[in-house]
Predict the structure of XRE family transcriptional regulator.
Amino acid sequence: MHREFLGVSESDPLAEAAALLVDEGTNCLVVLRGGEPVGRLGCRDALGALLDAGSLDTDGPTVGSVMGPPLPTVAPDDALAVVEERLVSEGADRVVAVDDGAAVGVVTAEDALAAGAPRTGNGAHDVVADEAALEDTRAADAPMAGTNGGIDPAVASSSTDASGSATQGVCESCGALVPDLVSANGQAVCPECRDV
């Protein structure tokens, strides 16, 4: 988890929070009351409220007037599987680690994927040792190959694993870990980003 994360207060002016979103290049801020996470402020929420207000004046709306529900929470010592389950079940792109009622860190979907990726001792991904197994994999992927020879991300993300359970993927637009990606403009995106 990242122990340094971006948080704002409910009473902060929305214009200042929006500037923080832009300056830090993030798409979500954790809204805190003291140290307790009580909401989230996403780019879309901030932009919509600022456009409705028609002004970037700091006396305009506050974060608390437009914030969304709190991000899902986990304990700092929860297993990676718990974090992944919360990301998928809540359709979120990040979870807040909470200890004794106070936010102590954030784990993004990208963090969870990176932490769960198989690696060798030197930090590189495992290499397939059996060339025949690699050829079998390529042959199995042939029906999903796009016109550019690559795998269509939307098709690959909507496939099933060996047990027949649906798999999930990361939205190429917002980074959310979701079970139902769709193809839009050559990217695998979540339904929310497809509508934008």
Q: What stands out?
A: The chain has two domains: 7-116, 145-194. The first strand starts at residue 7 and ends at 9. The chain is about 35% helix and 20% strand. The beta strands are 7-9, 28-33, 36-42, 73-74, 94-99, 102-108, 169-170, 177-178, 182-184, 187-189.
